[in-house]
Hints:
Layout: E1 7-11, H1 16-29, E2 32-39, E3 44-51, E4 54-62, H2 71-75, E5 80-83, H3 89-99, H4 115-124, E6 132-136, H5 139-144, E7 154-158, E8 168-170, H6 173-185, E9 199-203, E10 209-217, E11 220-231, E12 239-245, H7 250-267, E13 272-281, E14 284-291, H8 299-307, H9 311-319, E15 337-344, E16 357-363, E17 379-387, H10 390-397
Parallel strand pairs: 1-2, 1-5
Antiparallel strand pairs: 2-3, 3-4, 6-9, 7-8, 7-9, 10-11, 10-13, 11-12, 12-15, 13-14, 15-17, 16-17
Amino acid sequence: MAAPPASVTLLMPREAWILSRFMAACLAEGVDTTLCFEQPRQGTWQLVHYVNGEYGDSTGIDVRTGWQAAVPALQARTSAVVPTSEFSVQLCEHLAVALGVMHNPLDAVPAYRDKYAMRQRFQAVDIPQPEILARFTSLAQVDRWEWASARFPLVVKPQDLTSSLYVQRVDTVEQARGLYRRIFKHTQSFGGVPFSGAGLLETWVDGPEYSAECVVQDGGLAALFVTTKFVSRFPACDEIGHLSGGPVDAGHQAAIEAVARRIVQAWGLEGAVLHVEYKWVQGRVVVMEAACRIGGDFISELVHRQHGVDLERELVRIRLRRPVTVADGRPAQADGAHGVRFLFGDSLPRDVPAPVTLLRQVTYRRASHPAPGFGIHQRIGYQLLHSPCAESLRAYLSTDCKPAASTAAAFEPPSS
């Protein structure tokens, strides 16, 4: 009797575009799919099964006593568990262990989303990063801290929130206190996902921002693609666009690859697709944070169009223990560059300057009622773009960005 086809459980997809890419990846790999949707306010999981790309059946699981209640329903038909969002990366590893399928070491899992634990892990393997000056859980702790000795600017960030919410450069104690007040109140997501409610204070590091999309298999770095970030003006520095393609200095590429290998070491990873956010400061990488998942903001589509590498499919193959398709880590680039530009209330759709080409434009909120700012919740849509000239696309994406020049102090690694 032939063995049953492999089946992949896609854990807690939250966005339609990323779900569609994972579903296409599973079809390309010839595997059946189970979509696992969490409904935390109801205390249930909904399992939706697809066979040969078509709807099969669905099952509701009561998980009020814990996620372990879903294991029997998944045991017979799960060959791999794949995280599809930042809220599923930690649970994915625990569920994979329970199901006896490919997983990464559990001891590093708390550091996937907890920025405090992440900094400690990275420090142990000498990864350059900002220094944590304090961790606060109340305004009383904030008020007692020795602000007189603080060297502004500094960075306030939550310990474990999402989408860079409340991550901001501050220049005064009053600015910091206002952010911490909001962080301490934000103890769960709108969907019921719990947060620690703790806030961190870090040293400020100035420099152009990038991310690295990393394919890891068998504990080694199989491929790495550099994405350029475009951010709004100080103090928020919200992400307003991304670019894949264009020249990357050989020294820059080698430096981020070396740091990515240390992150793999710090987390003891067997296999994953990583999204590493960093700044390039005076010829060296400084890591802002890393995520054991595919980056959001359509970055995987940019990489696919520019480099011909489907990160969702690579992650499915990794979790199924199939060899990744990236052989040498240096696939040929398409001409020029691809990018995404987000649209905001004060940045409505406009004519795209030649030679930039508009591949897709989507607006999904009413532009007649724009909210101020450039945060993720102020986005009203996006443009997917291509240009045969990377610099022309870079210039278009740079509109509304902070100035490149800096008066901030140069990065100094924390003393050991």
